[in-house]
Amino acid sequence: MTVSIINDALREITRVQTGDTVMVGGFGLVGSPLTLIDALTKHDASELTIISNNVGETGKGLGILLQQGKLKKAVGSYFTSNREVAQWYNEGKLELELLPQGTFSEAIRAGGAGIGGFYTKTAVGTDLAKGKETKDIDGETYLLEKALKADVALVRAWKADTKGNLVYYKTARNFNPIMASAAKYVIAEVDEIVEEGELSPEEIATPHLYVDSLIKSQLILTKEGVIDRE
Questions:
Q1: What is the pLDDT of residues 149-170, one digit of tens each?
Q2: Euclidean distance between the first and final Cα of the chain, in Å?
Q3: Is the pLDDT at 223 greater than 80, yes or no?
Q4: 89-98: b or e for each residue (b if 16 or more CB lie within 10 Å)?
Q5: Closest-CA residue to 60 (of 191, 229, 227)
Q6: Whole-number mean pLDDT of the chain?
Q7: Are 35 and 189 in contact (CB under 8 A)?
Q8: What is the C-alpha to C-alpha distance for residues 2 and 201, in angstroms, rounded to an integer?
Q9: In this structure, is the dihedral angle defined by the CA atoms of residues 194, 198, 204 and 207, taken in order, positive or negative?
Q10: What is the mean pLDDT of residues 91-112?
Q11: Please, what are the domains in the chain?
Q12: Chain-centroid distance, C-alpha 217
């Protein structure tokens, strides 16, 4: 498979269609594909199910998509970083599926590994377990959690080579590698693209097999907020 190197984020983001399930990397705004999210805010796709640790922040990242009314459902583990999420939920304008963070991560990993679901003790006996199957294993109760998969994944990496192998920068790695394995189509936003063979095999976290297209990042996160690279 040959990876496509794209110069136009707006054109590539049309891979996302109305009603799609989209995985978006990031923890807070760190490791978020801000250029791709910005393009998505300018695309007319709606009724989206977003699988992401959080829904950005108020007016930032995925928070803009929320304000635009383009989200049908959010699946994640940390929604309080954006208080508007609770407002939209209470008004019946947004569905939420809250998962403990370890469960959330494992559900994505399972989706990429071809595993339909797994049993965990986390959340047993809580409201999060309502409506879910349980099973006794060796005298203890476990909760069945289904795998998470997506139509499109938007991930953020530090470097890529022209073949599509990805390297991440410190904690910006977060959910990006597992999301790259769990979607039908993967768009990677990167700071730098180098020639094939320039990356050490030991530093590659996402093999090119998972990546369909690359795009250079135009927006970055600084102490002052999200700014244009130029």
A1: 999 999 999 999 999 999 999 9
A2: 32
A3: no
A4: eeeeebeeee
A5: 227
A6: 94
A7: yes
A8: 18
A9: positive
A10: 97
A11: 4-118+147-228 (3.40.1080.10)
A12: 16
Query: pTM score > 0.85 for this model?
Result: yes
- Give me the pLDDT at residue 2, please: 76
Give the tokens for residue 75: 């699946």
